[in-house]
């Protein structure tokens, strides 16, 4: 049995007042499926991101992959210098970040490869002489030679203790490029100066300064920084000691004036 008109009208039910058709017209468009789903028609999300459309808001949202951000995932969240695979021949790339500097990369080369991008084999031609061992590096100096006893120089081509031939004129003396030989020769020179300046404090100080200058080109940045900090600390202590001594003298003078 169908009841066309209820015995009692209910104000909360629009069809009891003949407004059923009006309700359909109002409610219908709200829940009508949205045909303009931009994720299906255009997919604005880039770089592998997934697009999610909201019919209620008539808007979309991109879920970006790691390393990307922005409305459409087009902005790099963090620069990755290794993303372009700059290291070659099986090398391992590692991002390198220093304070105040842009992010760079460093390649850890496979055996027998060298250079900043591990794209060269400098030891293939065996540049090291006199049974020296060639070893690759990651720096722009592609290799270095591990020389046997009695030899030095970049390619182990200089016999330690022998005077290399003069190449730069009569007034310029050339020494071996081997670090040990060059430093030892400088130390011997300054040691002889020390002996003659034993009774001269100023001469001894100058000799010590020159000896330190001889080792200066071979000091790394950390050592230089450490020595600079030690020097500054020493200067501060000396200044504090001088100030303390002056204050002591001043107090003593005041006491003498009061007694007098």
From TrEMBL:
InterPro entries: EGF, Notch_Cell-Fate_Det
A Pfam entry, by short name: EGF
Tree of life domain: Eukaryota
Compositionally biased residues, Low complexity: 203-215
Disulfide bonds: 45-62, 64-73, 128-145, 147-156
Region (Disordered) location: 1-26, 193-260
Ranges of biased composition (kind: Basic and acidic residues): 1-25, 216-260
Record keywords: Disulfide bond, EGF-like domain, Repeat
Listed Gene3D superfamilies: Laminin (2.10.25.10)
Organism lineage: Eukaryota, Metazoa, Ecdysozoa, Nematoda, Chromadorea
Domain called EGF-like: residue spans: 35-74, 78-117, 119-157
Protein name: EGF-like domain-containing protein
Species of the source: Mesorhabditis spiculigera
Listed GO CC annotations: membrane
């Amino acid at each position: 049995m169908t009841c066309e008109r209820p015995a009692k009208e209910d104000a909360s039910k629009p069809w009891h007042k003949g407004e059923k058709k009006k309700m359909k017209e109002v409610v219908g468009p709200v829940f009508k499926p949205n045909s303009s789903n931009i994720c299906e028609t255009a997919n604005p999300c880039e770089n592998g991101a997934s697009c999610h459309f909201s019919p209620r808001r008539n808007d979309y949202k991109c879920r970006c992959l790691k390393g990307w951000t922005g409305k459409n995932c087009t902005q790099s969240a963090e620069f990755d210098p290794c993303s372009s695979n700059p290291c070659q021949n099986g090398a391992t790339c590692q991002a390198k970040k220093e304070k105040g500097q842009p992010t760079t990369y460093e390649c850890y080369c496979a055996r027998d490869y060298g250079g900043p991008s591990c794209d060269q084999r400098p030891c293939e031609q065996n540049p090291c002489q006199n049974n020296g061992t060639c070893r690759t590096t990651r720096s722009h100096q592609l290799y270095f030679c591990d020389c046997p006893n009695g030899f030095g120089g970049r390619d182990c081509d200089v016999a330690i203790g022998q005077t290399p031939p003069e190449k730069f004129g009569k007034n310029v003396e050339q020494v071996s490029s081997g670090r040990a030989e060059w430093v030892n020769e400088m130390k011997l020179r300054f040691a002889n100066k020390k002996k003659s300046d034993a009774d001269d404090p100023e001469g001894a100080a100058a000799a010590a300064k020159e000896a330190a200058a001889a080792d200066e080109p071979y000091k790394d940045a950390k050592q230089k920084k450490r020595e600079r900090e030690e020097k500054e600390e020493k200067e501060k202590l000396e200044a504090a000691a001088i100030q303390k001594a002056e204050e002591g003298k001043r107090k003593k003078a005041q006491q003498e004036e009061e007694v007098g």
